[in-house]
Every structure is written in C-alpha cells, then in structure tokens.
Design goal:
Elements lengths: L36 H18 L17 E3 L9 E5 L26 E5 L3 H6 L3 E4 L4 E7 L16 E5 L5 E5 L14 E2 L4 E4 L10 E7 L8 E2 L25 E8 L19 E4 L10 E11 L4 E7 L5 E8 L4 E11 L5 E9 L2 E11 L7 E2 L3 E4 L6 E6 L6 E5 L5 E6 L4 E5 L5 E8 L4 E9 L1
Parallel strand pairs: 13-19
Antiparallel strand pairs: 1-4, 2-3, 3-10, 4-9, 5-6, 5-8, 6-7, 7-10, 10-11, 12-14, 14-17, 15-16, 15-18, 18-19, 20-21, 21-22, 22-25, 23-24, 23-26, 26-27
The chain binds zinc ion.
Length: 457
C-alpha cells in the first residue's frame, strides 16, 4: 500500500495558495526505497567484478581510517546560508516495521541503508541550474560509475540511477546515488579521485521522490553486510567513532534562506520546476499579483524547526533603523518550514534589508525601492544591458542572449571585488563598497565578451 495514494511523491514541496504558507516535505520511504534489493545486487556484482579486474582486492589497505567531508557543495553563485537538509538517516533497527536513527530518533525509513541529503528549497530549480554539486567525501578509486539515466523521477520505481562508487585507501567504500543525467564525472572505473573532487550534480534519477543524494558507506566494498552509518550517535553501534572529519549536528536548526517576493512562490507538483517570484528591486507604486497595493511577500525557509523557538524578523531602513518588525513562533518540530508574510513595502527610494534571527543565526537579504520616474543611463551592447549608471549600490544586468555569462567587478585599483554567474534573464547585484569608479568584465566562461565602467555614487 502506498503511504500517499494518488499523490506526487517527492522531496519536492507540496503547493499551497494560502497567504501564509506551511509546506511539508515528501521523501522516499519504506514503500519507496532509494535502491531496490535487485539493484543493490547488480551494483554489488559490478563492484566485485571491477575490484578483481583492478586488483584492488589485493592491495595493502591503509591503516588510517577514512575521514569524510560533506559530499555536497554549493555551486553556480548559490550563496544561501545553507542549501540542504538530511531527510533520512540510516535505519539502525533491523526489525521490519521498526525504525531508529543514530540519535535514537525517527529521521529514517524502514530498511534505509544510507543518508538522504535533500537540496532545499527549490530543489528542481537548483537541479536545473546545477547549483548543488556532489563531491568526493574521501579520496579513492572509482569501482563503478554510470550516467545517462532519466533524472526527474517523483516516486519509487525500478529504474537505474546515475551513480558512482568509490573505494577508499582503508578498504572502505562510498556510494553516491540519484545524480543528474549527463552530470557524472567523465572519469572511468579504475581512475582515482581526490577528496572534494566534482562527481556530479544532485538529481532525481533512479528510485527517487525528488532531487537528493543517497550517500552510503561500507567498511568493505561489495558486501552488503559491511554497511555502516558514518554518524556517531548513542544508537549507532556500527562504528567506533564518527567517520566524518567534522560531524554535523543531528539537527541543523536555522533559517537557511530569506527572500522578498513579488507574489507567492510557486511550488508545482514534482517534477516541474519551482518559480520563486523573488525580486530585490521594487518600483513604487508597487502592485504584486494577488496582493494588496504596496505589499510584497517576505519569505523565510527554516530547516529543522524546533517548537518553542521564535524568529525575529525585521525590515531595516537604509540607515539601519527599523521600518517594520514582527515575530514568527515555531509551534511544532518540522524538518522544513516555509512561511511567506504579506507586508507593506517602504516607499522611499533606497537600499533596505530584510533580516531574520532564529536559533542564534542572522540571515539577511537586501532589496531596493526605486521610483518609477527615475531615468537611467544604460550601458548596452549585443549581449546585455547594464543599468543604472551611475548606481547607488545596485546594478541590474539584463541578458539579451542565451549565452552563458559571468560578470566580474573590479574597483578602481583593479582588485576583483565580486563575481557572479548571470543565470537568469535579469540579475541584480548589490555592491557594498565605497563610492567611485568600477570596472566590469563579462565573460562567456572562456573569454571576455565585453568590458566597461560604471560609477557608484
Ligand atoms: Zn536513500
């Protein structure tokens, strides 16, 4: 029986149209495991065969135990406070129908043999834009690698994933599963990787309910009985001490992203790409779709929410004084929580800050209020438009071609102060630097396609 009959299954978010949105995460579970038994058998046989071919079964194993780094990293200009959450640890209770994770909690599903790390929020958008990369947690030799499989699955299935398996110097191994189609490293079986090396992009290939990494480690390579949970915890007896160089806390409670939006963010059913509807420039008078005149949506994205904690939210004026403030009270424990508040925007032109404090962590984003009647000097050529010039701290770049573009900004001394991928049709960049002349270069990844100057005043 399916746990959610008829529903799109996903690490993705359910949609909501209410003014203040409460959205829950749907993840792989016992009825929809990340990897089927049949598939484990195929992979294990493949690894066994390759290990023998490579003679890796005969090498002298290093006596120092493997030390893992986090297998994901932000890429492509992603600068959120964080971009993932652990949606399921290893199930350490071998009894059918019973679960327990390393911390004696229930963040796992029956029979789960790895750690599921979901990317969040906007997981399909992040996947489309290659914003979260899978990297080698430890150095080693590739013993199995596969690419080319469909990568936008929404439920359990018997399809193969895009994956890589790496044997470490101490004889242990790691499996990286569910990667994006055509993103997997071009290295082949027998080649080595260093710690932190690019392996692929997080995707939803194989038996997956949404973009996430299934990361699994073993003391051996192909023997299913050597699987362990790398997180030390009072309910994990599979290891003597943590395999992580710096083990992350069981819950990483924080507001990981904050944004100002022109209207509701759109979280369509899996596998459609989310539409954030974020902006950091609002021309007054502003009218957002479905909102009262002059209002915008102010979003917070909470990871590992804890009941009883409060988020202190503020809109700060350009001079740092408070324009508006309010409190969000956490009333339940949630792996993730999205909340969008409708609030009146300031109307005086200037650079404002939306700031959130939660669990001792401050997250903020800047947005600008502009006057529609202002006229801007525009720097323009066949690739892009850049404005305003002079700028008061924000410049906007509109692309006029689909070419991959990256902007680099230098101060008058020639020092690089900022670089950013221009992923969208329109990108706003804020420069927190002194007034004066700035130089910019726009590249297509290989060569400079344009350069020029603008003034910050
Ligand atoms: Zn998994």
């Amino acid at each position: 029986m399916s746990a959610f009959p008829g529903k799109a299954f996903s690490q993705n978010l359910k949609d909501s149209t209410s003014e203040n949105e409460e959205i829950s995460l749907i993840v792989n579970d016992a009825e929809h495991p990340c990897i089927t038994e049949a598939e484990y058998e195929i992979i294990e046989n493949e690894c066994k065969k390759n290990i023998e071919l490579l003679g890796l079964d005969k090498i002298v194993k290093s006596r120092s135990a493997v030390s893992l780094q986090w297998p994901l990293r932000a890429a492509n200009g992603l600068n959120d406070y964080s971009f993932y959450n652990v949606s399921a640890y290893v199930d350490l209770n071998s009894a059918t129908g019973a679960t327990q994770d390393n911390n004696c909690g229930s963040n796992t599903y029956d029979g789960h043999r790895g750690t599921d790390i979901s990317i969040w929020p906007y997981n399909f958008l992040k996947m489309d834009k290659d914003m979260v990369e899978v990297i080698a947690a430890a150095p080693g030799t590739i013993i199995a690698v596969h690419d080319g499989e469909f990568d936008k699955n929404c439920s359990g299935n018997s399809l193969t994933a895009n994956y890589i398996m790496i044997q470490h110097q101490d004889g242990s191994s790691a499996m990286y599963w569910h990667m994006k189609k055509n993103s997997v490293t071009t290295k082949t079986v027998g080649q080595t990787v260093v710690a932190g090396e690019y392996l692929g992009v997080v995707g939803s290939s194989g038996s997956s309910s949404g973009p996430h990494l299934h990361f699994e480690v073993r003391t051996g390579t192909f023997d299913a009985n050597t699987r362990v949970d790398p997180f030390s915890g009072s309910c994990n007896s599979t290891i003597a001490s943590s395999w992580w160089a710096n083990q992350k806390t069981y819950k990483e409670t924080a507001i990981t992203r904050i944004s100002v939006n022109t209207t509701d963010a759109v979280f369509p059913p899996c596998p459609d790409t989310e539409i954030p509807n974020e902006s950091n420039v609002f021309a007054v008078p502003f009218q957002g779709v479905g909102l009262a005149a002059g209002y915008a949506k102010f979003y917070i994205f909470i990871r590992d929410e804890i009941s009883g904690l409060n988020a202190e939210l503020k809109i700060l004026n350009p001079n740092g004084t408070t324009f508006n403030s309010w409190t969000y009270n956490s009333t339940a424990n949630n792996k993730i929580k999205v909340w969008g508040f409708s609030k009146l925007l300031p109307t005086t032109p200037g650079l404002y800050t939306f700031q959130a404090q939660y669990n001792g962590i401050t997250t903020s984003t800047k947005f600008e209020i502009t006057n529609n009647t202002q006229s801007y000097n525009v720097i323009e050529n066949q690739y892009f438009k850049l404005y305003p010039n002079p700028s008061n701290g924000r410049i906007t770049i509109e692309k006029t071609s689909n070419k991959y573009q990256r902007i680099l900004i230098y101060n008058s001394m020639g020092a690089l102060i900022l670089e950013k991928n221009l992923l969208d049709y329109k990108t706003n960049i804020f420069i927190n630097d002194s007034k004066g002349l700035y130089l910019f270069r726009i590249t297509d990844g290989n060569q400079i396609i344009s350069s020029g100057k603008f003034i910050l005043e």
